[in-house]
Amino acid sequence: MPHQIQTTSAVERPHSRLPAVDAMRGMVMVLMTVDHASFAFNAGRYVTDSFVMYQPGSTIPVIQFLLRWMTHICAPTFVFLAGLALAYSIANKQSKGIPARHIDSDLLIRGLFILALDPLWMSFGFGGRTVFQVLYAIGGGICCMALLRRLGLRTLFATGLVLMLGSEALAGLAVWLGDGQRPGTVGAFLVTGGRLGTFGFVLYPLVPWLAYMILGWVCGQMLRERTIRNPVKWFTIAGTILLALFVIIRGLNGYGNMLLYRDDLSLLQWLHVSKYPPSLTFACLSLGMMCFGLASFFRIYANGVIFTADPLLVFGRTPLLFYVLHVHLLSGSAALLGLWKSGGLAETFVATAAVLLLLYPLCRWYAGIKKSHPRSFLRYV
User: Fold this and answer.
1) Residue 364 within any structural domain of the chain
2) Region 75-90: what's the mean pLDDT?
3) Which of 191, 203, 209, 210 is nearest to 145 (CA)?
4) Domain annotation covers residue 367
5) In 10 A of CB 279, how many CB atoms?
6) Is the pTM of this model over 0.85?
7) Residue 16, in any domain of the structure
8) Buried-most residue among 118, 144, 221, 295 (CB within 10 A)?
């Protein structure tokens, strides 16, 4: 007992938070930093995650491809876990008797704030052009959940599946409603993504990414209601099913690949899936890997005792603060050092480590401040 008392400042028993979820989010944030360090420093960065970016038969550089590919798990996990966390957050508010209209207004304010960060702030970190990326998808999804949360769990699950399964058909419809070759502006924002003239780009269209948030919400409700009694087993089974579906759909090499088909049977071609917009194979592969990650973290944190200094938990509990700072730090340092898109893998990994070390104490400090002021504006960051 004396030893436990002496270590209470370093050990925490979580209540409403799920440490496995925080750790999973923290892990993908580290991977995301690698990708964005590569964006800023790596002259050989290889990005062909859409059929419009890839010339069939082209040679794929193995190391550069795998460096990019290992980060595919990031955005799907962020959006899925945002939905999962939202389910817990709203349930906690409802248990405190907070009126539905207040919950809805809070969701809309939070969603619009997060959405606006992409064009108003993140664009400067990504080269200056206006971009609508993952924060646009998450913020827009949160706004949508103000209405969708009223649907039953089975209806929501079916809605998420329909959006995910039908994403390629919706993309084709958006192009058809455009000029037959590219979607209009509305189609780009909602379904396909794409260039917005000289204004900028939509990289994360709302509707297909909303499917990830809806499914995350459903999963969060099932965890909260104890429908998922054994998370390790449940996520292992879910991951196995998703990866099996990936093999089947990628093997058939037809619908579900968002026109980015395999050139041959090589491993790289199997893994070369469409992220812009997200194909069904991309969804099955990335969410399948996420499920195995969650199963591992639920096993690791099964005893319910966690160390507050755990870097994955520190980053996973302050995701928005980390996100809005790390890209600008990487891009700014690359420009100041004269290495903007002119370095290599060594510079990429050194920059990644430097940013993680720099942001760790800041994120840990901020998590404490945010916890001490739960009703302040800080709850949106």
Assistant:
1) no
2) 97
3) 210
4) no
5) 28
6) yes
7) no
8) 118
Pairing of strands 200-202, 194-195: antiparallel
Identify which of 310, 376, 362, 332 has the alpha carbon closest to the alpha carbon of residue 20. 310
Amino acid 37: pLDDT: 98
Q: How far apart are CA 54 and CA 47, in angstroms?
A: 9
| 27 belongs to a structural domain | no
Pairwise CA distance, residues 50 & 375, whole Å: 42
In the numeric block, the tokens 């900028």 are attached to 200
In whole angstroms, give the CA distance from residue 202 to residue 215. 23
Q: What's the Cα-to-Cα distance from 297 to each of 31, 198, 231, 304, rounded to whole Å?
A: 16, 44, 10, 11
Angle at 308 between CA 306 and CA 312, to 5 degrees: 85
The residue with tokens 């005893």 is 303
DSSP 50-92: STTT--TT----HHHHHHHHTTTTHHHHHHHHHHHHHHHHHHH
pLDDT at 5 over 60: no
The average pLDDT across 99-122 equals: 96
CA nearest neighbour of 182 among 193, 168, 190: 193
Other Cβ atoms closer than 10 A to 44:
14
What torsion, rounded to 10 degrees, do the Cα atoms 276, 50, 33, 337 define?
A: -120
- 222, 356, 233, 214: which is closest to 294 by C-alpha? 233
Domain that holds residue 149: 76-286
Q: Is 21:294 a contact under the CB 8 Å cutoff?
A: yes
Neighbours of 361 (CB within 10 A): 10
Which pair of structure tokens corresponds to residue 116? 């606006």
Alpha-carbon distances of 159 from 148, 163, 338, rounded to whole Å: 10, 6, 48
CB-based contacts of 152, cutoff 8 Å, min separation 6: none
Q: Can you tell me which residue has the tokens 């917005």?
A: 196
Distance CA 19, CA 305 (A): 9
Q: How many domains does the chain have?
A: 1
